[in-house]
Amino acid sequence: MPPPKDVVKIAIQMVGAIPQLIELHQTKPLASVLKDVCDAWSLPNAERYALQYVDGRQTYITESNRREIKNGSILRLTTSPDQEAERLYSGIQSNNSDVKTDSLKKLASLSQDVTFAQEFINRNGLKQIFYIVEEGNATGEMLAHTLKAFMELMEHDFVSWETLSAAFIKKIVSYVNMNAVDASVQQLSLSILENMVPTSRLLFELVKKEVTLDRLLTHLQVTNAQLQLKAMALLIALLLAATDVERRDMMGYLREKNIRQFIHKNIIHSSEPLGDEMAHYLYVLQSVSLNLCERRMRSSMDPYSQEQRELLQSLRQTAFESESEVPASNFSTERRRSLCAKEFRKLGFTNNSNPAEDLRRAPPGLLALDNMVYFSRHNPSAYSRFVLENSSREDKHECPFARSSIQLTLILCEILHIGEPCSETAQAFYPMFFGQDHFFEELFCICIQLVNKTWKEMRATQEDFDKVLQVVREQITRTLSLKPTSLELFKIRVNALNYSEILKLRQTERLHQEETLAVPVLELRERLKPELLELIRQQRLLHLCEGTLFRKISSRRRQDKLWYCRLSPNHKVLHYGDVEEGVHSAPIESLLEKIPVADMKMLLVGKECPHTKEKSSGKQNKDVLELAFSLVYDVEEYCLNFVAPTRYEFCLWTDGLNVLLGKEMTSERTQTDLDVLLSMELKLRLLDLENISIPDTPPPVPKPPSNLNFCYDFSHAEQ
């Protein structure tokens, strides 16, 4: 007979004693359970003891988390959190450096537990940590343990970062600014400042003033990958917390210091593989840099602005005045106005008498004007060739430079997500972005010439304008998906993907679609679906067995603990547990937490997940909502919360968990994989029918003959 649901069978260990095997009644007060355990070992003062997990993070058992204890759990009888906090509080004040170091090391480990952290903070333990740091006598290992303990204690949000003293902050800053400091101390100091920056404007200003960008750039140039990562994390935190004006100034200074070229050479193309965390920071740096264009993108042209009018006139002058034999200033006002209007029409403005009207639409606003001026100044020969070549064509066949530039700028803004908030988890950056100053403008210069090339290949007229720009968008997105490492490589590939290539790709896709829409083929698809869906199910379960590295995302900061989760080979138990930074695959034996598949109840995704409800809503968390899912398990309906590293992992894990729950796979990836497999299978089966049209309906069966007397009689033939 199975035990009641409120009773779990567990083992309890104690150093130097024979373990006890007991049945823990969850309705019985924890104090009574401890009294019984202590009595069995003849230990007095049961209130001085507590139960703690042997494995994993060694969390203390409390009334609030006792329901998480599973059958077969191994616990340890240990000193209670309040007694341990008192002992370590005394230990870190010891005059014996060995005792002090050991106490700080133990403190750094135990501070991960929320119960212990509360007890230690209640004893004013943080004040003692502040004193150790401010005093300045601690160095090396002792200081590293002190800072680690401080980080873990602050992680629980019992104390506000704004309560930190100026002396403590200055000391942390000094560890970052000094050269002769242990690398582990500098890493922890950078992490502390990174956590400090988003919490208040005052702390942001203090850190920005004390830790210069030059100092962070120095840390980025070291060979220690972890120190490099922490420096980049602080730089990104400062950029995200800054106002628009401050961010613009900071990015301008970083541009002067050639940070892009350094990142391109020493981080992206270093011998070490790029980690997920660094990839995210590079994505954010790219996004912040591109979003500097947003202000111009959302600003309409002001026809009364002298500066903007001069920029507009410079486009006309660069293209036409150099070839004019008679200066325009020699003409009358009316003649000059007529000549300007004609030249603006040749430039491709739709409103040639008042070209500023074309730039009133925002987006792309003034950003389109900036791009046109940049192209005319940095590629004058290509600019003149574009304009003069088209002004010599028939009116209906000319490619309008200005109109194309305005629409192309809008397309590039959409493709590069300019004006959108940074994602909290994305890692997709373009390596070529870091290899080129004025990336957006240089990309425009390549693409506007592509517009002219495609226009000629399509033999387009003014009516085909939208079609041409649609083809150009496709050329750009298809090329960017190949992740070219430099703009030069992008230029080669995008020009190779000419209009005829686009037509071939479209034709192939269209033929494939038409082929698969015939009624007999659709019937065959339906017959093949169950077999292929089973194949996808097996692949999903295999992926769960291989496991995935997940990152816990707290409400305060992105960087947090790593944990690994994988399914047992027999598909009966889900194993998970915390892992250290740098671990890419954890063996199943090292994952100490378990959830039997039989206990799994349901899967929650997006807004339904408890860990997304805790976070503040807003655009910033949209990407987290798209990657979040929770597994509800056990009678008490506990939740194991996930935030997938990518949408791909989200699809595979939600599908796999749905398979284990006996439900349908619902992710978009399932449909994509099914379409690919069906396409391959159908092509193989229809190989013999190539170039044979498949009728929509089967041919009719002929009527039976009027008589069946047409059988040949062999016996008569032999005679």
Automatic annotation (TrEMBL):
The Gene Ontology terms for molecular function here are: SH3 domain binding
Q: Which residues form a coiled coil?
A: none
**Domain (ELMO): residue spans on this chain:** 307-480
Give an example GO biological process: phagocytosis
- What InterPro entries has UniProt attached to this entry? ARM-like, ARM-type_fold, ELMO_ARM, ELMO_dom, ELMO_domain-containing, PH-like_dom_sf, PH_domain
| PROSITE patterns cross-referenced by the UniProt entry | ELMO (PS51335)
Q: Which Pfam families match?
A: ELMO_ARM, ELMO_CED12, PH_12
Q: What are the alphabetically sorted keywords of the record?
A: Apoptosis, Phagocytosis, SH3-binding
- Briefly state the protein's biological role: Involved in cytoskeletal rearrangements required for phagocytosis of apoptotic cells and cell motility. Acts in association with DOCK1 and CRK. Was initially proposed to be required in complex with DOCK1 to activate Rac Rho small GTPases. May enhance the guanine nucleotide exchange factor (GEF) activity of DOCK1.
Please report the name of this protein according to its UniProt entry. ELMO3 protein
Organism of origin is Pampusana beccarii
Please name the taxonomic classification of the source.
Eukaryota, Metazoa, Chordata, Craniata, Vertebrata
